[in-house]
Amino acid sequence: MNRVYAAVNRYVQGAAATDSLADELGYLGLQGPVLILSGPTVKRLLSEKWKAVLGDRGISHEVLTFGGECTRKAIQSTVDAALALKAGVIMGAGGGKSLDTARAAAAQLRLPFVSNPTVASTDSPCSALSIIYSEDGVYEGFDSFGRNPDLVLVDTDVILRSPERFFVAGMGDALSTMFEADACRRAGRPNLRGGLSTIAAARLGESCYRVVMEDGREALASMRAGHPSPAFERVVEANTLLSGIGFESGGLAAAHGLYNAMTIAESTRPYLHGEKVAFSVLVLLVLEQASEEIFEEVRSFCLDVGLPVRLSGIGLDVEDVELLRAIAEHAMLPGGLIHNEPLDLTVNGVLKAMIEADRRGMGGR
Ligand SMILES: [Zn+2]
Asked: How far is the CA of 169 from the centre of ligand 1 (A)?
């Protein structure tokens, strides 16, 4: 099998990066009209700025309101709007789901895609994947496209003002990158781009973990104080660029496999992707029999920044063994990401690991 590394074409991050949107489009030779898909909050926050920045250069645009889930229907409405506008570029602005919807629509129309995350909450902005949900919000699978975003534009002024919980969840998601990439490498399993991992992807995953561990607490303090800092900038990059390319070109395993399976449990819906992934990293560490030191490093970080270390922190009850077993069964279905672990796993083993991670998350031995 070949080694494959795929990355975003151009990544731009900085305070007031939105001001350079038109310059960046010009630099890449991208032509309007631009169809922007964004949720109502982001639309309120940025529509005046888009009008000024794009209007100044005579680039027409239209903002389409995103409904909240990346479903086949939402993708089709975005495609229809882009066709009606005769769009030359599709831009997604917002969280992972609006980006995924805009990305899928752009791929369907073979249009350039600009990813404009307004929260640093997931590893999705730089990827070439869209996670698709049913109309009821259940994970259906993911579509993988040939190309990564043409441009990822991250305005750290906007991220600084985004809800703290999303930023923390982004760190939870970023925690998993190194462990899952390492699992895939050891198991000889392919990454998300259909090839084996590279040294480059492995290094990005390691850097991602170290940046989050070393700068995460300080970055959160800067966010709370409303003051940007080098630590904050570094963690935004870890959550977005390092985690994004790291997972896609490094591969995913137990943590995201469990996350996907948890979507069958209605009670976990109010919790963010990165929150569920963070707890799932503890489960991965139990499954892999990682050292106490590593488990404790992750656990104490989670406790310090407010990421869940118990099943109850993601809407699950440790006593509800039937539901936990259903999640373990779902994770173990053929084709599930958990099979990328270099381990012989059973449903019972996964179930036990979830319960043990919960006990050790509480501080029990
Ligand atoms: Zn993720």
From this structure: 10
